[in-house]
Structures are given as C-alpha cells and as structure tokens.
Amino acid sequence: MITQERASSPAGVSPISGLKILDFTHVFAGPFCTRTLADLGGDVVHVESPSRDPGDRHRATYAHRNKRSIALDLKSEAGYAVAARLAAGADVIVENFSAGVMRRLKLDYETLSAANPRLVYISLSGYGHTGPRATWTSMNMNLQAYTGLMLTTGAEGDPPTAISNSWNDYIGGLHGVIAVLQALDERLDSGRGRNIDLSQFECSVATVGALLMASAVSGRPPKRMGNRSSGIAPQGAYPCAGSDEWCVIAVETDAQWRALAGVLARPELGRDERLATAVGRMRHHDEIDEAIAVWTRSRPNTEVEQRVRAAGVPAERMRRVDDVVQSADSGGAYRPVPGERPKPVVAPSVPFAFSKSAVEEFTEPCKLGEHNEEVLRDWLGMDALEIAALGERHAFG
Fold it and tell me: How far apart are the C-alpha atoms of 275 and 258, rounded to whole Å?
C-alpha cells in the first residue's frame, strides 16, 4: 500500500486502502475530490458542522458515498480538541474553504504539521491562497468567465456560453486527487508530507491550454467553432425525424467523406474536387451540412447512427441524460446507490477498472453525524464513556 514500503499491493486491494483521510469540505469540488479518494479505498471521514445548511449538504449528497460522517462543533473547545486529535493521526486532510478560514480555526497546515509532519494537506479554492485573487469568492460560472472558457464555447455571435454541471468543481477535484496521490508517493521517500495549494482557476486554464497557445502565436482570440472542428470536416449535430432529435457525425478522413457521400445517395459529392480534402470541405461546410441534413431529417436518429457507422464513419445519436442512465449499453458507468428509496437511484461509477478490481461496491452516502461513535472508536480508540463525556461538553453541537 502507498503508506508502506514500495511494493505491489495485494490482489484486489487499493493502493490507498487504509489511508486516513480527514475531509473538511463542502459544496462540490472538495467533496468530489474526497469521494474519489474514498472510491479508491481511502478511509474518508467527513467532518461536518452539526448546524450545517441542509440545502448545502443536499447539493453534494452523492459525493458523500463511501465516506463516514462525524459532526463536530469546531467552535467549542471539546469539538476542536477532537478535530485536532483526528488530524494528528490523519494521512491526508482535504479542505476547500475560503482562504484564511482554516487558519482562524487553527486547523491549517502550519499548525497541524507541527504535530504530524507526515501530513499531506490540500486546499482547493477558487483562486489559490496567495496572490491578488486569494480573497475572491468563486462560483463555477464566474471561474469559466474569468478563464476565458465561456468565449471558447458556443458559436461566433453567441452570448458567452458556460459548460454546465459545475465544470470547475469536477476539474478542480480531479486535479486534487492527482496532487494528493503524488504527495503520498513522494512521502514514501521523504517521510514528510506536503502542503498543496490548488487553484480551480488555474485548473480551468489548463483545460484551454491549446487554445491559449494558439492565441499567443496568432495574436488573435480563438475562433468559436460551435459544433465544428478546426481540423476535420464535416462535423456537426444533424436534425433527425421527431421532435428535437439529433445525430452527431464527424468525418475524420477523405475516405470517410466518400463513404458518407455514398450513404447520403450523393456519390457526386464524393467525386467533387472542391470537397476532396478537409480544407476544401471546411470552406464549403454550410453546403455540406445542408446536404447531410436533407437526408437525416427524414430518418430516426437510431437509423442514421446505424447506417453511418456501418459505412465506417463515426456517428452517435444524441441522447438525453436519462437515456444514458437507463440504457443497457452504459456498461459500468453507473452503479445502484444502496438504501431504501421509493425509486431506485444510480450514481456514476469509477470510470476505470483494475485488472483485479480494488474498488468495492459503493456504500450509501453518509448522513450528518452518522458515524460519530464509530470514527472516535476506530481512529482515536475512545470508549463509550469518553464519547458520552464529549457529548456533555457539546463537542457534537
């Protein structure tokens, strides 16, 4: 395991199995980071305020699977003492509060690493904890605007267009996991932890890196391509029979273009010298799109997908999110969420597989304070009397 000497993990055991990960996170970037670490086998204990806003917690419910929850009043002397003891034995601490919050709580890296020099401590904030933007409050769309991302999506003439579904939270959380794993690997050699300051702004900038480089070279802002590509043609989402039904087609090679022309029953397009190369097809993209749309409009998207793919051209029908969830061909993308509910609930799975799986079945998302006694017993060796005494001292609110 990663906490021990360098060696192969036993078959079926995660490389981070048994690591103690203390989770001081909220909303989504931090909870997504720790959820991924929990999915990989880490023992994640989510520290929460007993007076936490239920709406805030509900928004990140599925990000709390495979974790344990302890409710601590960090403003009370007893609650803080428990948190400090948990931190003293933790391998990793993850937090995503605004800059300065953890220092005021005396739960910052400088304070905790004095007693726990092996501690890997990561802060995931919008703009990092240093520099002119350190105190800025960040939201997903604000970050997309400030990184320029909103003017690289959509088509020319469109208003700024955001990527939905908390793009920056996912990107920040994933980069956080990578940083933690790297720090843990370094700890095997150095014996010491790391303080990691992650900026979601910089993570988002990294995802538009190629566009930034192109803009720097040309001196012009990136062109907004909509559904088209800067390197292949034709490419687009084409209307199909029915209401708001579509199929996406992307022609990568000249041979594929000739094959598509055959599917469209327009072989003359495949022989047209103007359209023989991707450069030529880009110049005449509007004309090509109309020819494709004439054929697709009269057919269901399933038929379009099947016939175009059969000709060797990449094509996928446009599916709605519920179509993906309910589809039998989604493979291991989703897993059932344990627990009794009026309707079955599924959640995204871990999007990769080990040769001998180290990822167990998911546990139900933890409830607020559900594991108070269990965590104090497992991490700190407390007995029932000690835990009861903490309750009398309002450690749990």
Answer: 10
**Identity of the amino acid at 282:** M
**Measuring CA to CA, how many Å separate 264 from each of 154, 249, 272, 298?**
28, 13, 14, 12
Place of tokens 């009398």: 392
Assigned superfamily of 20-207+348-392: Crotonobetainyl-coa:carnitine coa-transferase; domain 1 (3.40.50.10540)
Q: Collapse the DSSP code of 316 into the 3-class scheme (helix H, G, I; strand E, B; otherwise coil) and give the result.
A: strand
Best CA proximity match to 80, nearest among 43, 105, 115, 116: 105
- The predicted-structure confidence for 342-394, as pLDDT tens digits, reads as follows 777 777 888 877 766 555 667 888 889 999 999 999 999 999 999 999 999 99
Of 130, 135, 100, the residue nearest 197 (C-alpha): 130
- Residues in CB range of 261: below 8 A, 6 or more apart: 267, 268, 269, 270
Sign of the Cα torsion 346, 351, 357, 363 reads: negative
DSSP string, 317-363: E---HHHHHH-GGGTTSEEEPPS--SS--EEE--S---SS----PPP
Specify the 3-state DSSP secondary structure of 120. Answer: strand
- pLDDT tens, position by position, 154-172: 999 999 999 988 899 999 9
Architecture, CATH, for domain 235-239+246-317? 2-Layer Sandwich (3.30)
Rounded to an integer, what distance in angstroms lies between the CA atom of residue 286 and that of residue 225?
A: 13
Phi, psi of 349 (to 5 degrees): -85, 180
Question: Could you count the other beta carbons within 10 Å of the beta carbon of residue 51?
Answer: 10
In 3D space, the residue among 94, 81, 20, 22 whose CA is nearest the CA of residue 382 turns out to be 81
